[in-house]
Specification:
The structure holds two protein chains of two kinds.
Chain A (H helix, E strand, L loop, with lengths): L7 H9 L12 H14 L13 E7 L9 E2 L4 H6 L20 E4 L4 E3 L4 H8 L3 E8 L7 H10 L9 H9 L9 E4 L15 E3 L17 H8 L12 H24 L10 H14 L6 E6 L8 H25 L6 E7 L19 E6 L6 E3 L17 E2 H12 L4 H5 L12
Parallel strand pairs in A: 1-8, 1-9, 5-11, 5-12, 6-7, 6-8
Antiparallel strand pairs in A: 2-4, 3-4, 5-10, 9-10
Helix pairs in contact in A: 1-2, 4-10, 8-9, 9-10
Chain B lengths: L1 H4 L10 H11 L5 H10 L1 H9 L24 H12 L3 H35 L3 H13 L4 H4 L2 H13 L5 H8 L3 H6 L13 H11 L8 H10 L3 E4 L2 E4 L9 E3 L2 E3 L3 H9 L2 H15 L9 H16 L4 H10 L1 H4 L11 H12 L6 H10 L22 H16 L33 H12 L6 H13 L6 H12 L8
Antiparallel strand pairs in B: 1-2, 3-4
Helix pairs in contact in B: 2-3, 2-4, 4-17, 6-9, 6-19, 6-20, 7-9, 12-13, 15-16, 19-21, 21-24, 22-23, 22-24
The chains are: A alpha/beta, B mainly alpha.
Chain lengths: 432, 498
Amino acid sequence: MSEHNIPYSRRLFIRHGVALASMATTIPQFIQNSALGMVAQLAGNPGGAGLPQDRILVVVQLGGGNDGLNTVIPFGMNEYYNARPTIGIPAPSGTAKGQTGVALMLDQQRGLGLNPSLKGLKGLYDDGKLAVLQGVGYPNPNRSHFTSMDIWQTATTGAKGNGWIGRYFDNTCNGTPIPEGSISIGRTAPLALNGQVQKPISFESAELFRWLGKDLHKSLDDPYQQINRAGILPETTQTSQAAFLMRTALDAQLGSDRIRAAVGKLPLTTWPQSEIASQLRIVSALIRDGMPTRVYYVSQGGYDTHGGQLGSHGRALQQVGDALAAFQKELVAQHAEDRVISMVFSEFGRRVKQNASGGTDHGTAAPMFVIGSKVKAGVHGDHPSLTDLDQGDLKFKQDFRGVYANILDEWLKAPSAKILGGTFSKSSIIKA
Amino acid sequence: MFEDALKPLPEKAFDYVAAVHLLNRAGFGGTPSQARALADMGLNKAVDQLVKYESQPVEPVKADLFDNSIMSPLTDEQRETVRKARLNNDEEVLAALQRERNRKQSEDRKQIAELQKWWIKRMIETPRPLEEKMTLFFHGHFATGYRTIEDSFHMYQQNQLFRKFATGNFAQLAHRIIRDPAMIKYLDNDENQKSKPNENLARELMELFTLGEGRGYTEDDIKAGALALTGYTFKDDTFYFNNNNHDTSTKNIMGKSGQFDGDGFLDVILARNECAEFMAGKLFRFFVNDFSGDMSKDQKAFILAMANKLRSSKYELKPLLDAVFSSAYFYSAQNRGAIIKSPIQLTVQAVRSLRTPVRELSALASATDLMGQNVFFPPNVKGWDGGRSWINTSTLFIRQNVLVYLLTGRKPDMYEWQASDIPFDATHLVDHLRQPDGSVDMASGIEYLLRFNLAQSPSPLRLQQVMAFAKSRGERLDNDRIIAVLALTAAMPEYQLC
């Protein structure tokens, strides 16, 4: 293992030894935690390269309600084309209408294809790195964007309480939050990452992760750095709010140095240009840098396709598909592929029947994607019936909480029943 | 013993720094001259002015300040059109209806953004800071979020209700909140019927609003409480008691038996000792000390004294707030700088105390959201956790940068705010230190600025660092230099305390 593959904290530990663990006032919390973790590890606790503490989950949120039926195309079902006379995507063997093209073949026997814009995902599928989970949803579906998104993010049908990933951290961190445990690339952190104890950090770009005051005059930088890097001042009580703030300020400076340096490095591979691609590029840079982060969260909007959806939906899918393919390629180049899986979801799918404006209205169940070299690639579960509908909407086949449970249990090695407050039937999507 | 904990501060101990503390905690801070005026009044008058604020004239809030018709329910006629269109599968009509719904929702989202700006502006400008601060307290306490309500006028009505009862009677407010359309919608009480009870409101009423989790009630009490609340719903913008859906049976709630309705249920709760203690604890964290970790002995004694006060005044809040703000304990060293400013406190206090330009209200709303406190959008029914949960490595930068924006008008490239070139005249902050020739001694000016802006005495090291910087830039404490000193002060970790 070359040094750049070892997490930063461990590198520091190797260089500086156990002494780090005792320098409570000057060492930032995240390094301290990791150093203490190392001590525990050396003392015989399980854990090591490739085991869960090195594993990373990347959540990709598609906002607005992604039209599942035009993402994974059930070209084998005539009802699909009856319900979508003008926006149905032709079968791979069919004739392209206009510029949209024909479905990319996923599974001939099941009659399933991918939206023609999803060439990126098709490549991952052919490489055995894409799991397609069909008909994912939940009971008594809610068709409000906000509420349904909250349901997915809290993993409760009441859409109340903390986020499911926040609860995952709460359950593993023994009352002490893990700084930089979860990072969202975006304006504000999603509810999913919010725990009772664990709070996410979020930033839109690494440029925002710094103090702007020094742009006023360069002479301000020195005193600013002195102030924020001083750690806990000698006269300050260790347990006070002031001490907490001083320590966090030091963490912020080091985090900023590190994140900006990491993101400033050229990636190992070429990337497409899009908002979602630059978010995933930041994530790949942070992974490469060995951040202690376990969960990253990125999101893309534009899926609320009520009218004239063929073009706009295709563009959104192409961006996310190409970005995910580029992300995977970058991970391969970093030799980090086996440590990372990505999970793609949206708050709901859309109605089976297209509407009068060449679009689709809010619906229910839809496919999810899970990507990585460690996922059981292929199509999981059956496509929901297009005739046995609930008020014109698909009946879900797989509760999304079963997917979460599987990822928690088998990827993050965390007790899903405790975190999700129940057990949910699941098909295993993680390789042993 | 209780009275002992609330022992008042000796009049002579109420100095300038104590007045700053009072202004920050009972409100959102004030300028040096306001603090001086308050200190000159003496403790009793100063507290009176803040607590008995009715004497301060304020712009009245008009009921029709916001449009109540945007999300008004469909008329019978419209409903018939929908029904027919669904029956006939009339796609064009259905699509038109959907478009209309989308249009209304987008208009309403604009109105909730206006409401946010209106409230932040009010907090900045009001001569009754405690009124707005308690309104903010109740917004976090009876947390209700627009995401679920999707009706900005209902959020506005609720905000007005909190303002009306800001320092009024908590028990009366509790009776009003179970009739509040936003609350009823948020906690699903519009679906609470005797044939299929919904426990959401009853549960949160006990767990989060009055008693505290697991304090003296059982699951059976929640079930009985839910039945008492059946039929409490709303029509358009007003409370509506649906007699047909109300359960009139005899209920047992926390050892009391009766044909309780919602009010009867509340009376049982409010009579419990746990209720006053729970509210005292929450107010303590909001006004006195949002400590992390275990409660100390003296904190416990003070909270019990507060609870006692609340009980003896039958939930009137004024006597309690008066006693807290007059107490020696409130001003003691351990409670100075013992609260981490909420994003609203940070922002509003900066404008009020430094008198920076307001710049752009939408930018301030956006900034508080980035820092984790989007008003009218609390994260969940528990409201904002507050305390240390406000702070992490990303929010700390945002906090520092929001102050740079207020002080200078500079904004980060990627934020969707307008940069602002309104100049900030900061010289008024040191006016009282001017020598006959109009100049201000650098050392005493800087020491004063740090002392005024930090909730605790500045550390000698910090003073030294700022002084070294200022001296390197010349000998005069002019406006630019004051702003630079303020930008550095606001970037100190301890600036987040109040």
